[in-house]
């Protein structure tokens, strides 16, 4: 009998690919149970605040006015204290924090973030905050993935896959949508569809979905109207719907960050700001109970055509205000569900109009509401594939795919043309983090001009004659001459190209001086500017080098920076980064 040459299981698990798949299953399981725990805590928090765990619309009329205002204030106060004194990452909608952790910290997220996010988001939503639960679950899942990666000492280069596994599991478990969870993680969080990322993310998403379905069942999220294309003419309306949902999405993004700036500027302690937002929310709930919390009850009513046109139109703007106040003041929650809500009301109102105008050629308003939900998600996140698949999985209706594709792609293309950053990356840009610009910009933004500038440069007085300038070019072999005044301050710059027009003119050798020939007020950089700033100026002005000035009240010429020096610095940084990644791969 031949000896058993099969490799022991513990040795197979040491292979990187097998180990990542094994860890993906662990992350999916933990994130799945995290989603179950989050939903239970959310229900409990709503019971704590209102002594009722049902949909808000079923009991809102029985809640006294003072409670509608006092409970969001109390919830905001609790969240403000948690965010200010325990984990600042729990503030806001969560996804930008995950993207920032991948871009700047190698996917490392503090272990306390998951617990803080579960509690803060449950309190926010349970007390009435007009936000969703998917953003928190993305951050909770990502935190779990990061913690597992840190415990098992996963190399930095692979940590983003572990974080992506957690994010995918969070979306999948929250929406009962495993495919959308995978695409969300790959399209938004990781930004890579490679096999090494795809396989672990799929396993994690499937594991989390299986756990969620075990506890909550396998059923669509919404009451879906009977959907069908009534006429081919309808396909002309869906790109129009894409434009409208795109405009609403832009309004939501800009309103959110405008209000965030207003709350940030308030001269009160940060921990008290969510409570101030709660005062505004209470007033909104008293008039429009439909925007309380996640708002699935109001969406279901709109989808089955039980909401009048006027109310749906008004609720678009009310939801923008309520969600922006919740998040802008410092509350914790996601933007996915608010986007779905706004899309539902936008599409429903649009459907009422086109069905009233052309009843024989259009479907019912509920069909347009369903499609617009995806359009608005795509218009805010700039992730059309995720938007299409999440609506498809949440509805289990394949006939909706073509209208969804038209609407989502139109909204994404239009919005990304008008405003480069999505609702997620806008928050990072406001912090000075541009993750969409690529590796080159990231590297150059972390190097300063003074690190690579050339300190050996040629200066001439502004009174030097043309003859002396030509002689200086011949003897110094300098591409540029820096013109300075009596106090050595830069007044201009001369290139040999500036002399061509006067070289053949006789009698000008002693008449023209440097001040006559120099380019006045040349574009400059300072020693503390980044190489990316310098490269942007070189590109904009079409020059090959820039004078470098010192910082301070009286800037002096201290060097020159060439495009070749920037290229050399970038190449050197790239090689160092690749060597570090190779060493981490070898260590793994």
Automatic annotation (TrEMBL):
The keyword Membrane applies. It is found in: Membrane. It is a multi-pass membrane protein. Keywords: CBS domain, Chloride, Chloride channel, Ion channel, Ion transport, Membrane, Transmembrane, Transmembrane helix, Transport. SUPFAM superfamilies: CBS-domain pair, Clc chloride channel. The keyword Ion transport applies. This is Cl-channel voltage-gated family protein.
